From TrEMBL:
Pfam families: PorP_SprF. Keywords: Signal. It comes from Hymenobacter guriensis. Residues 1-26 form the signal peptide. NCBIfam families: T9SS_PorP_fam (TIGR03519). This is PorP/SprF family type IX secretion system membrane protein.
């Protein structure tokens, strides 16, 4: 096939792929440790788990393929002294190396925390996101750039069909919780930002529902160090446009160790049979920091042999351990959400 024909075929494929980004919720940034990257999961989590903290996450999906999906996350939040409100920021970077696709998102978050009854708490959050996505052609050589000797001699005259896209997105989230259970709902792209003609128009609104319970086998605080033994089943459901994803998880914590299993691919009524993925999570929580690792294993006949996904998350945080211990002992002013840390 001539070089120009191959190029046009490649660009046509790119047009379909970039259009898929706008229409498929699966193309949104996804992390297998949702509660470690909770500022990405729901803005209502801002400031709930610590006084202030910084989280770094990196995900490498399909590493066996040339040009894997690579996602990076930086999240930070700060809770004000009056304990009722918090601010945060998120920076997400999504890259597909094979085609030079890059999506960068920067978000500002705010959350307000309220106590409804002696045992029920509510947090509401909002975020505004600036996004930029582009395709880099720096690693491509077009036919008209090559001399008779095969040397790259000049800029290409080929039309570049994909201009960088800039957009603003609005998201809201709510979280209702007690000491042993939680329900969360978040919505993103409420304003359905326009990604341009080449990217298939408006970005569909994304809805994410999360829920879980925690059963404590034991809780102790010795010399300002909190320890627990617990079991937490979780559920999550995400819908964006015509795409749906449901997963169930089970976490066990025996301080400082947390292990978890997540199954993604629960069949849903009226939806195509999804791919099945089993995620294994291992996390260590120590005073001042947490680190977690997860691996996604593809299951069933739809296994692509692409190497699954590796993910690592590091959190540095500061917590007033004396105040936290008093809240746990008194049960009167409990503000931490009982969800897993990973």
């Amino acid at each position: 096939m001539p070089t120009t024909a191959r190029l046009r075929l490649f660009l046509g494929t790119m047009s379909l792929w970039v259009g898929g980004v706008a229409s498929a919720g699966a193309q949104d940034l996804y992390f297998s440790q949702p509660y470690a990257t909770r500022l990405h999961l729901n803005p209502a989590f801002t400031g709930l788990q610590h006084d202030y903290g910084i989280t770094l996450a990196y995900r490498d999906q399909f590493p066996s393929l040339a040009g894997s999906f690579q996602s990076s996350h930086l999240g930070a939040d700060y809770r004000f002294n009056e304990q009722r409100s918090a601010v945060g920021g998120v920076l997400n970077l999504d890259q597909l190396g094979a085609i030079g696709y890059t999506r960068l998102e920067a978000a500002a978050l705010y959350a307000y925390h309220a106590r409804l009854t002696a045992d029920v708490y509510l947090s509401g959050g909002a975020q505004v996101t600036y996004g930029n996505q582009r395709i880099s052609y720096g690693n491509l050589v077009f036919g008209d750039q090559l001399s008779d000797e095969g040397l790259n001699t000049s800029p290409t005259a080929e039309a570049i069909p994909f201009d960088p896209v800039h957009y603003l997105s609005i998201g809201l989230g709510g979280l209702l919780y007690t000491r042993q259970a939680w329900l969360g709902l978040s919505t993103y792209h409420l304003n359905r930002p326009d990604l341009g003609v080449q990217a298939a128009g408006p970005l569909p609104t994304r809805f994410t529902f999360t829920a879980g319970v925690k059963h404590f086998f034991s809780e102790t605080t010795v010399k300002q160090h909190y320890r627990e033994a617990s079991l937490s089943p979780t559920l999550a459901y995400t819908r964006q446009g015509g795409s749906q994803r449901a997963e169930a998880g089970l976490y066990g914590t025996f301080t400082p160790l947390t292990v978890g299993l997540l199954y993604r691919g629960i069949p849903l009524p009226g939806a195509p049979q999804p791919a099945s993925v089993l995620t294994t999570i291992v996390g260590i929580q120590m005073p001042g920091f947490r680190v977690g690792y997860s691996y996604d294993a593809e299951l069933g006949h739809r296994n692509l042999g692409a190497g699954g996904a590796h993910e690592i998350v590091l959190t540095l945080e500061q917590v007033d351990v004396l105040a936290a211990a008093r809240r746990r002992i008194s049960r009167k002013n409990y503000r931490s959400v009982p969800c897993p840390y990973f």
